[in-house]
Every structure is written in structure tokens, then in C-alpha cells.
Protein: Rhodanese-like protein
Amino acid sequence: MEPKIIQPPKRCGCANPSEKCEELARTIRPGKVDPDAVLVFDVRREADYAASNETIPGALWKNPDKIDAWIGAVPRTLDVVIYCVRGGAVSNAVVDRLHAAGVKARYIEGGLEAYKAAGGKVARK
Structure:
């Protein structure tokens, strides 16, 4: 009898068990973000947000440590793009929670730093 292959957990909630789901990519390239077309959340930790004077124009800061308080108000009908400083653990954790709640969410590869390096416009907060 052949051993059963166990598929990795689905991270986006679709029927494709691969890490890079075709139906809903977890990430968006920094140069492809259009803050006028999607809802953008800045999910940098409170200290990182406070230490910076830059934000993506139109982005709303959402404290990732208090996601339980705000996740219920996130629209399920809009595409949501999130970013943290470098697009790592914070973004991944928030995207996982948003997907579990039925929100179409992606995060910016490389975070705010990559967005700026790709020529993305920033605003003073």
C-alpha cells in the first residue's frame, strides 16, 4: 500500500492546496499597489508606526495586536492590501486572520520599504 501524501495547509481558503494559490495570491508586488483602487491598511506594530513619519496615501493604521477589535468591521466585498515594515511575520499573521474571516486580503511583498524602493508614493502622517 502506498503511503498517503499529506497536503500542506491551505493558506488562502481556496481548493488549491499549494502555497502559491492561483485564485488568491497572498502577496502583491510593491509596484502594483493602487491605493485609489483598494482598501489599504498599515499594520505596522504600534512602536514602528509611531517611529515613522511616512505612510501610503489613504492607508488606515490598524494595530495588529488588537485585530480582534477591528476585524469585524472590515468589508468582505472589497480587496484589502496590508503592509508592515518589511512584509514579514506581522503581514502574514494579519492576512491569515483576515482570510479566516472571509476577507480578500493580500500584503505588499517587502512591506513599506519595498513599496518605497519601487517608487511608490508616500505621504507624511
